[in-house]
Amino acid sequence: MNGKDNTDIVCPPAKIPRTDETVIDGFVSNDSVEKKQQNIMPPAPISLNTQNESSTSMAGFIRKSVATKVRECDVGIAEFVHKSTGFKAILKERIADFLVHEIDSTGNVVRLTTTSMNDIVEDDVNVKESADAESDADIPRGLTEDIISKIGLLNSKKLSNDEKNQSEILKDEEVIFVAPTERDARATIHQFIRRRYAHCDSTTASNSDGDSLITVHRKSAKGRKHWRNQTPSTPQTKYVMFHMHKFNFSTQDAINRIANATRLKPKAFGVAGMKDKRGVTVQRITCHRSTVKQLHNAKLPPGLVLGNFSYSPAQLNLGDIWGNKFQIILRKCDLNSNDKLNFESRINVNFNDLKNDGFINYFGMQRFGCYSTPTHVVGKALLQRDWNEAIDLIIRDKFQPLIDSSSYNDVKISSIEGYWWKDKELLESIVTNKPSFISKYDFEFHIVEYFAKHGPTNPLGALQQLPRNQLLLYQHAYQAYVWNTVVSKRINSYGTSSAIKGDLLRNAANDVVHVDESILDSFSIEDVVIPLPGADVKFPNNECYHWMLELLHEDKLNINNLRFRDCDKPLSGDYRNIIVKPKELQWSILTYSDSTQQLLLTDLDIMEDRQLPTQLPDLEGDVLSAVKVEFSLPSSSYATMAMREVTKRESTTLCGVVSD
Question: pTM (2 decimals)?
C-alpha cells in the first residue's frame, strides 16, 4: 500500500466542452445585487478553482452555466490505494455490460424469475376470506347483527347509471344507529366499516336529544377510491412487493413511470436503494394501496419489467439492504505503452491488489452527476437556505435550450432580479405549450408549474414540490463531497498502511471509538471510519476534524446544524469506512470481435433461455480483449470506484459511450 510520499493529484486541464455538457463552477450573475463569488477550497493537494464570468443573452442578463465537464477532483476524489500501473479499458460501453442485483438484508440476491401473477391470485382470495372471518370474530361493540346485515345490503347494492352520475347519494340509502358514548369505541366502529365495506362510509352526528348517532351511507361513484375496492386489508397484505428489472432508467424515473401507469403517487412506492441509470438493475419495490393485478397489468415503457409479486406487512425504506452484486464487462482492454508486464499478468496483478487491499470507498460520480450541475452544489445552496440559488441550479440544465434563445412562443425571455424563471408570463407560456425537451415526469417542470400557478415569490414552496428523497439527495451529496475531500487529504498525508492516533474505528461490538496508542496496533485501516458531517456523530481527534471544519466554515455552514429548514431535524451524519474490500471477487479475460456482441446474460435473457454467442473471434475482424468481473459490495459503495482502482483511470473517462 502507498505511503506518505504520494504524488499530488490535481485536476487536469479542462477539455473542450461538448455542447450538451454543463458544469459546477463559473455560475454567472449580473444581478443588481452582487452575489458573492463561489470559491470552494478543499484542502491541498486537491486543486479546485472556480471563477465568475459574465454571460449576456439576447434578451437581457441571464445567468448561464459554463459548459465544462465535472471531474473527480471537483468532488474530492484524488487518491489510489496502490500507485501501480493501470490499463486501458471502457466501462459501460454497452448498457448491458453493467448488471446490478440488490442483496437484501438477509443476504439473498434479488432476481427476476417470473412475471406471472398466477401464484398470488389464489392468495388474494384467501386473504379476503380470512379478513372477513377475522372481522366476524371481532365485531366492535355497538354493532348488532341486524345493523351489520343492513350495512352489508347497502354495500352490495348496485347503483343505476343515473345514480352513478350523481354526486350525492339519496337520503334513504343510509343506516343510522345509536353510537357508543366513548370516542374510542366510535372510532373503532368507523375503522371497521371503512375497512370491511368498500362502497360505504360513516359519520357521527348528534340528534336533538344530544345522543350520538352513526350514519352509514353509500360513497358517491365520483368519490370512491378504486384501491379500497381491491386492496386486501389485513396487516400482512398492506403492501405489494415486487422485483423491478430496469434497463437505462434511474430508480426515481422508473418509479415515476410506474406511478403514472397505475394512477398512483410516487410516494406510494418504497425502495431500499437507488440504482444507476446506465445499467441493467434488479431491485425490490413496495407499493401501498395497490394490488398485484393493478401492477401486473400496468402498461410500462420498454426497459421496465415487474415480477415476483408478493405481499408484505412493511414498506421498504432506504437502507433496508445489505448491498449489491455486480457483473461488469470492461471492454477494449489494452496495456499502457510503458507497461513491462504482459496483458494477462497486468490484469491479475491489479485485480489481486484489489482483492487483498481493497479500494478507497469514495462516493462515486453518480452521487454528484457527471454532465450537469452537480448535486452537492445544489445541496450547499439548500443548506445555506439560498432558495433562489437552489431553484436556479436545479432547473438550469433542463431549461438551458430555452435560456439560450431570445423568446419562447413570442414571449421575450428576460431577467427579473437575475433569474429568467421569475417572469410569470413566460412560465405560463411554458406550461401551456410544454417544450419538446421537457417531459411531464421531470420534477424541474413541476417547479415551473408551481411558479406559473402561484407566482415566483415563494421559492421555498416550489422546492417543497420536489419529493422529500430528492431534497435529501442534494443535501447528502454535500456531505459526500466533504467526506471525499477529507479522505483524500487523510490518505495523501498518512497513506493507507495503518490507522493513526485519533482515528475513529468500529470495534468487535460495532461501536465507534477513538484510536489511542494502547489499541493502535490491534486494528488496521480497514477498521477506520470517517464521519459524514452531522449532529449525531463523533469526530476524529486529529487533523481530519479540522479539515472538515475548514470546509464547512468556507461555505458558512455549521457542522452541528446542517438542515434544510428550521423545522427540519439537522442532518444526523453517518460513519463510512475508508477502505472496502469486494466480496466474492472473480475475474476472467474474454475475447470478441464485434463491439455490439453481448457478453453478459440479464435475468430476462435467462428467463427466455437465451444463450451467449460464441466468444471465438471473427478472424476477419480485429480481436478485442475484455475482462469480466463479478463481486459484491455493501450498500452505498460504488463499483465504479473499484474499477477506477484497478484501471488507475478517472471514472469519468473510464465510462464509455452507451451504444445499446
Answer: 0.73
